[in-house]
Amino acid sequence: MKKPILPLFTLVILITGCRVISRDRDSVIVKQIFSEALTDTTSYRNLRHLCTKIGGRICGSPEAAEAVQWSKKLLEGMDLDTVYLQDCMVRHWVRGEDETVTVNPGSNNSFPLHACAIGGSVGTDKIGITAKVIEVKDFDELEKLGRDKIEGRIVFFNHPADPSHYYTFSAYGEVAAYRVSGAARAVRFGAIAVVVRSATLALDDNPHTGIMHYPDSGTKIPAVAIGTNDADKLSFFLKQDPELDLLIRLSCREYPETHSGNVIGEIRGSDRPEEVIAFGGHIDAWDNGQGAHDDGVGVIQTIEVLRIFRTLGIKPRHTLRVVVFMDEEVDQRGAKVYAENAIRDARYPVGDPRYRKHIAAVESDRGGFTPFGFSIDASQAQIEKIRKWKDLLLPYGIYMFDKGGSGVDIGGLKPLGIPLIALVTDSQRYFDYQHAATDTFDKVNRREMQLGSAAIAALVWMIDQKGF
User: Fold this and answer.
1) Do residues 426 and 369 lie in contact, with contact meaning Cβ atoms separated by under 8 Å?
2) Residue 248 main-chain phi, psi, to 5 deg
3) Are residues 297 and 446 in the same domain?
4) pLDDT per residue as tens digits for the range 33-92
5) Per the domain annotation, does 16 fall within a domain?
6) For the chain, N or C: smaller number of CB within 10 Å?
7) Which CATH number do you get for residue 180?
8) Are residues 125 and 220 in the same domain?
9) Choice among 2-11, 174-183, 216-225 with the minimum mean pLDDT
10) How far is CA 9 from the centre of its chain?
């Protein structure tokens, strides 16, 4: 006997009804995720410990080693299916105690500047370097001045961040180059040291560090950053006296490389355990602060994703993997090792127990401020699929799903052709704190941070349910 054929209008009603039921279910789960994140204080307590008990944890340091073991123990206590370390070698640069920058040393009108060594800088001897200063606003001016004007002097890069940018990462991108390569560019013309205006829009006395790069061969000269107020002050006095002296004394130095690694925790997928959704932040942080917004928050937010899934009893279809990356700030060794392993694992034959295929990766490394949405490095088709989920997150202020960059730690996964996604937050205050001594736990608002945790968890859940 033939089965009766349902009228077309009945099929439409049934199909439409299924979609409504599915949509309602999605909304319920997303609401549960946000409610759990916003009412539980576990993550905030974890961040407090990371920042105040361990503190600054630049790669190679005892604090970084402690942070690795602490995060591994934290994950082991969460009833995950797998927790393991992924070994890598890292550089070991130590700031030292002496960071002295003095205008007109030894004179009656001498005064100190708020300064810190730029990460990776060579130090000076105990006496330090004293020389005349020449102020330049950019690399073009450096080139025009040439060796005749620069040789034997200290170059002062005074390039203020442009406040007309709404998106402060754009302003940062324009000025960070002077910190990163200022010494390498200035030494070509005979400079003996560089002073760099801090890469921030804030006007204060807090110098901001960060990594710098020397050429592979040749002379290496000391490099320091000074607070923006002091940059304005130094510029003012140079206009009064272009021949003033500056003393720089640093005790920083580089030690042999040492072992460290990423920390990885997983909830195994029920349907497709060989397919991985990865998410993470970097545990290393500059030693002059506590690494709260950069990037303690990102680590805690992504660990929180697994806690939320476990607490709510959500069983993922794919394997969920948190990656606590090491060494984002200096040389991205953890990211490189992770990408190498992920690409290798994807090349094993399907069915091989070593085979693992990433389907998406998410990074949090833009501070613990109010989240706006996500920046997505993916094909247009993949982006459009993610945008279909926008209505589910819009009630929680998550409205941005734009094509753009992802993050330093997951960027190496690009050859896999998967969506690489970064949490986007309100950036207005981020560079007030980034790489400065003021990047401390008390600057993080728990609710803002947890909105970010929930946004990532909800996105991960949608990826897990819908796939690509």
Assistant:
1) yes
2) -125, 125
3) yes
4) 999 999 999 999 999 999 999 999 999 999 999 999 999 999 999 999 999 999 999 999
5) no
6) N
7) 3.50.30.30
8) yes
9) 2-11
10) 53
